[in-house]
């Protein structure tokens, strides 16, 4: 009995909730609603423009006050010297800038050193195998 009473009470409420959810999905936008949405967007844009204008006005007033204080106390405006300005690439870096392959070769003395080392290695290998090849060819008697 108690189960039946609970089902009747909750069943009616669940049906009403289901009905409301069904109305949300198939709603078409009418011209009046589209016009209202457009007006709301225009008002939001207007408020944003007013906020930006107020902010610019306050910032201009602050800059005037800053300049007055600089003049009163003989302070210089903070500006970075050209040599003090960080490179745009290094703005947020903690470590040093990584070198490109060309920079690494230039730092090592250029690419000629590597070619000489490779040529020296090739000569060493050939000098090792030349006597062996001569012995093998003499053994088999060409």
From TrEMBL:
GO-annotated molecular function: syntaxin binding
**Which GO biological process categories is it annotated with?**
regulation of neurotransmitter secretion; synaptic vesicle exocytosis
User: Record keywords: Transmembrane included?
Assistant: no
Q: Which GO terms describe its cellular component?
A: SNARE complex; terminal bouton
Q: List where this protein forms a coiled coil.
A: none
Keyword Signal part of the UniProt annotation: no
Q: Where is this region: Disordered?
A: 1-119
Sequence ranges of Basic and acidic residues compositional bias: 35-93
Mind telling me which InterPro entries this protein's record contains? Answer: Synaphin
The alphabetical list of record keywords is: Exocytosis, Neurotransmitter transport, Transport
Q: What is the protein's known function?
A: Positively regulates a late step in synaptic vesicle exocytosis.
The entry assigns this protein to a family as follows: Belongs to the complexin/synaphin family.
Spell out the protein name for this chain: Complexin
Query: Source species, please?
Result: Patiria miniata (Bat star)
């Amino acid at each position: 009995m108690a189960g039946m009473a609970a089902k009747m009470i909750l069943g009616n409420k669940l049906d009403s909730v289901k009905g409301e959810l069904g109305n949300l999905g198939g709603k078409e936008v009418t011209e009046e609603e589209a016009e209202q949405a457009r007006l709301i967007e225009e008002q939001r844009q207007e408020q944003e423009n007013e906020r930006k204008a107020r902010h610019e006005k306050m910032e201009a007033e602050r800059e005037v006050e800053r300049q007055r204080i600089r003049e009163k106390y003989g302070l210089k405006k903070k500006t970075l010297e050209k040599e003090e300005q960080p490179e745009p690439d290094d703005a947020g870096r903690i470590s040093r800038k990584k070198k490109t392959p060309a920079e690494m070769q230039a730092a090592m003395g250029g690419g000629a050193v590597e070619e000489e080392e490779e040529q020296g290695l090739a000569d060493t290998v050939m000098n090792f195998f030349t006597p062996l090849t001569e012995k093998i060819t003499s053994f088999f008697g060409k």
